[in-house]
Amino acid sequence: MTAEPAWLVQTAAHLRTPIEPRSDGYDRQIGAAVRRDRSVRRTRRRLGLGAFVLASLVAFWGRTPGAARTTVEFEIDAPTADRVSLVGDFNNWDQAAVPMRRGTRPGQWQTTVPLPNGWYRYAFLVDKSVWIADPAKSIAPDADFGQPTSLLVVE
Q: Torsion angle of alpha carbons 12, 17, 19, 20, nearest 10°?
């Protein structure tokens, strides 16, 4: 059995140490200021906690469900595919949410999706097993699920 490094033992001991209230009353002042902020309490009371959190996230990300949407067209050439789906953070990576249809050219698959303004990561799922990033768009900087994804900006 190996002993933990000294820095780890010291850090754990520090984290277990209770925090003492400040003697200058600063903690009480902060608590009073938070309690005085009636606008947050009023909004939370009117909306309920769930709606308050949702409204905060919508304000942060700038995506509102009723916002104007832009119709975005997606297409990919996959001549040997039997089935292609569009997956992305806009449909919770659900492979059944946006099935693609065959296009006018042989091997072409296409679909259109209405999206509000924002940044989206997406990929094409071919035959339920092969993830393909869109060759016409830039690759997303982080690969969720260890699979390649593309980045789309809707403005």
A: -160
Q: Model-level pTM greater than 0.90?
A: no
Question: Do 110 and 74 touch, CB atoms closer than 8 A?
Answer: yes
pLDDT above 90: residue 124: yes
The SS3 assignment for 21 reads coil
The burial of 110, by beta-carbon neighbours within 10 Å (0-12 exposed, 13-18 middle, 19 or more buried), is given as middle
Residue matched to tokens 């003492």: 20
Burial of 56-93, coded b for 16+ CB within 10 Å and e otherwise, reads: eeeeeeebeeeeeeeebebbbebeebeebbbbbebbeb
d(CA 31, CA 19): 16
The whole-angstrom separation of Cα 39 and Cα 92 is 33
Tell me what percent of the residues of the chain surpass a pLDDT of 90: 24
Tokens 């990561």 sit on residue: 121
- What is the residue-wise DSSP string for 28-48? HHHHHHHHH-HHHHHHHHHHH
Q: Is 136 helix (H, G, I), strand (E, B) or coil?
A: coil
